[in-house]
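Handout, page 2. Input:
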Amino acid sequence: MGRGAGGAPVKWRGTVAAPLPAPLPTGRSILRGRLPPALGVSLGSFVVLGLCDGALGTAWPAIGHALHLPIGDLGLVQLAGTAGFLSASAVSGRVAARLGRASSLLLAAALGTASLGLFALTPLAAVLFFAALALGLAGGSIEPGVQSHVALSARARTMNLLHGCYGIGATLGPILVSGLLLAKSSWRLAYVVLASCEALVALGVLSRRRAFDATTPQVLTSRRRKGTVVAQERAYAPLALVLALSLFFIYTGLEVGTGQWAFSLLTTGRHLGTGLAGLLVAGYWGALTVVRLLVAAIGDHLDSEHLLTASAAGSVVGEALFWWNPNVVVGAIGLLLVGGSCAPAFPLMMSRTPHWVAAPNVSAVIGWQSASASFGIAALSGLAGILVGSLGLDVLGPYLLSMSAAFLALQLGALGALERRRAGGPDSVA
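Output:
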C-alpha cells in the first residue's frame, strides 16, 4: 500500500489505508530531535559488546591451555556464539513488543552477566560452549534492541557514536586481557571484569526503564492510533526489505572479511613482516572507529544518503588498490581507505530503517537486519576460506573487490527504492 503525492490514501491489492506520516528529514528521528534518552546506558552497552568480542581472541590461548582444548576450537566457540546471536536477533522485535523494550534488554543483560560469569568459572569445555551460546543470545537481544531505541529516538550521528563505542570496546578488550596476563593474573579475572561491566549495563537499563519503554513497538502503535493513524496491512515494501537484508549481509561480509583475512594475505601472500602487517590491520580497524566517531561529531551537517553512496564507492576504490598493490604503500592506502570508507555504512543503514518502515515495525526489521549481518559474517568469511583453500590467497583481492562492488550496487538500488517511497511510488510502503 502506498501514498499519493498529496497524502491521499491509495490502494494496494484491494485494501485502503489512512495516509502515512510524512517522510523523515534526513538524519532525524521519530520521537526526538537530538539525543535519545538513556544515551549513556546505550553507549555503555556497546562498549561492553566490543569488550567481549575483543577479549575472546586474546584470551583464547590461555583458555585453551587451561581447559585442554586445541587452538582450532576457537572457531567452535565463535560458531556457538553466532548461533545464539542469530536466533535472538531474528525474534528480538517480537520479544520487545511482548515484554517491553526495557524488560527485554534487562533480561538480555542479566543473561550476558551470567554467561560471562560462566566463562570465568568454567572447569569444562562443554560449559564453555554453553556459555558462548548464552552470550550470543544476550548479544543478539541487546544489539538490535539498543539500535532500535537509538534509531527511533535520535539522529543518525548518534548511531555512529554508538558503533564508535563498540570499536572502543573492541580495542580495549585485548588490552585488558593482555595486561592481566602480563601482570601474571588469570584470564578468568578478565571475564569477572567483563561480567561486572555487563551487570552495570543491566542496572543502567533498570534505572532508565521508562526511557527504553518509550520505544517499545506496542507503545508506538498506541501512539499512532491516538494520532488517528491506522496501521496499514503491509508494514514495509517487500523489495525494500530484500534490499535492506542483502545490504547488511554483503556489508558485514566485506567489513569483517577484509579485517579477518588482511593479515594472512599481507604476511603469507605478500611476505610482509609480522609487525608491519599487524600495524596495517590495526590501522584498518582504527580507521573504522575514528571515522565513525568523526561522523558522530559532524553527522548533522552531512546528507546521510550521499554519505552512504560515498562509503560504498570508497570501499570499491580501496579494495581495488588493495588488490592491485604495486607496492606496499599503495596496498596500505587501499586497506586504510576500505576501513575509513566502510565506517559510517552500518550505523547509517540502521538509522535509515525508520525512513521506510512503520515505527511499530522498526524493532522487528532491525532484528532481522542484525541477523542478516551476523549470517553475512559467517557465510562470506567462510566462503573466503573455501576459496583460499582451493585457489590460494591471491583470490582474496578479486573476492573482496566483488563484494564491495555488490555493496555499491545494492546501495544505489536501496537509494532508488527510498526515493520512490518518498514520492509515493509502488515500493513506498512504510
